[in-house]
Amino acid sequence: MEIWFSNPHYLWLLIPIPMFAAIMFVFLIRGKRDIEKFISFRALEFIFKKGGFMSRYIKKNFLGFMFRTAIYMIIIFIIAGYTIYYDGIAKDQSMVVAIDASGSMLAEDIKPNRLEAVKETIKVFLEKISPESRVAVISFSGNAYIEQGWSNKDDAIKSIENIEISPIAGTSIGTALKTAISLLSKEKNPKVVVLLSDGGENVIPQKELDEIIDNVDKEHIAVEVIGVGAVEGMKLGGTELPSAIDEPLLENIAKKTDGIYVRAETKPTLTEAYERIIPAKIKIPVRLRFPLIMLCILLLLIDYIFIGTD
Question: What are all long-range contacts of 53-58, with beta carbons under 8 Å and residues at least 24 apart?
Fold first, then answer.
């Protein structure tokens, strides 16, 4: 379980609380001294034993301060966007499917080639997710392109069928993840990216890629990664360039975002990889704005009825 605030800068408003407590303590001491000027010490002992004026004075001030401090803190948590995330299996989710469309996906270690194998098998995966889930589709090579904005799974399947190898050179997983963040940032459902790639990042520097992965994690987006192809790779037709899967990179992305990494070297293992992802645990948000508002109202009523009017 993880506690998260969508507007953490408001938490600075909690800093004055110790100062308020100190001021309250000073006023209690001074008030007690002022009372002692008019009532004898023996009379004060009698009043304490009988639960009279002094005990009520302490209760009204100290208990009232505690209640109002709690109310103040709750209000700060409300405007700061207090949210709890836990790992669970979500029925409804916002999913971005990111498919590598770089030239290396033409490698034929998975027949007819890596890209076509992904397109043929991912239909089965999408058909199994919840009908209420929202799906968007990205293809990427040296840059990223939104093939389909938020839609249902049927429209997503149709858009995937139209993905072709990009004429833009390079592979930029970082750019694909940045595009996924822009799509998912305002989503209220649990967020997940299904990334299918033969790996590699040859467009943006490693430091920037690490920052992007950190931002994915901060947005509570789980990245489920499927490495497509053999680890040793396969030479592309007419070239001597190996198309080896960058497994360490893909494993790192999945690990840092609490996702799952699966390697698929054949069509059957691609299907098995989808089966592992479908029940995978992702980060599910519990937004506490409404419960905190109700708690704040309850404390205000208790303060007014039992403390403020005592």
Answer: 56/310, 57/31, 57/32, 58/28
pLDDT at 18 over 60: yes
CA–CA dist 265, 283 (Å, integer): 28
Token pair 């467009």 is found at 203
CA trace torsion 128, 130, 136, 139 (10° rounding): -20
The pLDDT of residue 240: 47
* CA neighbor of 286 nearest in space, from 7, 153, 88, 11: 88
End-to-end CA distance of the chain: 41
140 - beta bridge partners?
100, 144
- What's the Cα-to-Cα distance from 4 to each of 77, 166, 193, 250, rounded to whole Å? 10, 38, 20, 26
Residues 194 and 149: their CA atoms lie apart, in Å, by 15
Calculate the alpha carbon distances from 90 to 9, 84, 151, 191, 286 in Å.
Answer: 30, 15, 18, 10, 12
What domains, with CATH codes, occur in the chain? 2-84+288-308 (no CATH), 90-280 (3.40.50.410)
Condensed to tens digits (0 to 9), the pLDDT of residues 240-280 reads: 455 567 888 899 999 999 889 999 988 999 988 888 877 55
Cα–Cα distances in Å, from 13 out to 73, 157, 296?
9, 48, 17
How do residues 76-93 score in pLDDT, each as one tens digit?
888 888 888 777 766 778
Give SS3 for 18: helix
Residue-by-residue DSSP string for 253-282: HHHHTT--EEEE-SHHHHHHHHHHHTT--E
Most confident of 9-18, 102-111, 134-143: 134-143
pLDDT attached to residue 145: 94
